[in-house]
Amino acid sequence: MNNLEWVDEAWSKVNSKIDRTSKKIGANFPHASVNGTYQLEEPFWWTAGFWPGLLWLVYRDSKDESLKKIAEQCEEKLDKVITDYYRLDHDMGFMWTLTSVARYKLLGEEDSKRRALLVANLLMGRFNAQGNYIRAWNPWHEGEDNSGWAIIDCLMNLPLLFWASEVTGDPRYGHVAKKHGETVLSNFIRKDGSVHHIIRFDPESGERIEAIGGQGFAPESAWSRGASWAVYGLSLLYKHTKEDKYLQAAKSVSHFFIANLPEDYVPHWDFRLPEGVTKYRDSSAGAIAACGLLLLANQVAPTEAEIYENAGVKILKSLYENYGDLENPNQDGLILSGTSHYPEGKNIDVPLIYGDYYFVEGLSILKGHEELFW
Predict the structure, then answer these.
(1) pTM score
(2) Which of 128, 163, 173, 181 places its Cα 20 to 30 Å from the Cα of 281?
């Protein structure tokens, strides 16, 4: 198959499958596919935006009203999370960027704008001014204190703040996003371009205390999805700020990511695993990074762009050809072999909704859709 003909073929199959699975899943919040069926989470779970976001990606191209209706119903279900849930955390960026911001960008609906601006204020309220970071989670267990924790994933929540500054004309949101970005540059990225998942700061003084392994194998390993959040998140930071330090950081983490890919271009779940630990793939990390690499390619000189574009295309093509399950009526997921949380033994070697989302976003980019929801 020459050049990008496979993209149209993949897109057609995605449309057919989403037409079927949307009727099964409806206005709910899938996370991981177990034995072929997407397991549903509560609306407050961090992955709540990815299914409606995926529907918006397909709707943008197909104008299928049934997909629009489901995505809108998902967004409405999230209203109770804003008002009634005590543990809303930094991942509200993921959740409302792919629901409210996406709908506002596509349809200009004022209720979506209002929701997204409210959530942007809530996200900005998590900013720790001493440490210049957006706090990640709230306590998972009674008595736990994670008020000093920040994580690499949060880079993908920052576009909500940049969007809020853009639509309101108020620079404060963007200021917070940039301060968090600066903290990522100085604390999360190693000299070789690999990244930490979690950094713990003293919430009173802002001083860095330690790196924590999180969903990677160990504190000094290289969790591939963390690397992919950095590839895409830093490329987005440069898109929104045009500050060269973010461009250079995006290049650094991208070079590390590309250099550590296996022969089929789909990463193992951690790039630094000792002997004896199973090297499961994480297709979601590949899909996320591919989108970031394609964005980075569009922001550098043509002489540089080829390395990033080629890698992004090869990842997506490999996901389609080697991990795609687009015509199987007994599988809700689009791409196989995602690894959600190896240290906790959760959802290993299964389709993941965020892997599906970024795979479809990557295809849409290759089809020529330049506007991102981020």
Answers:
(1) 0.98
(2) 181
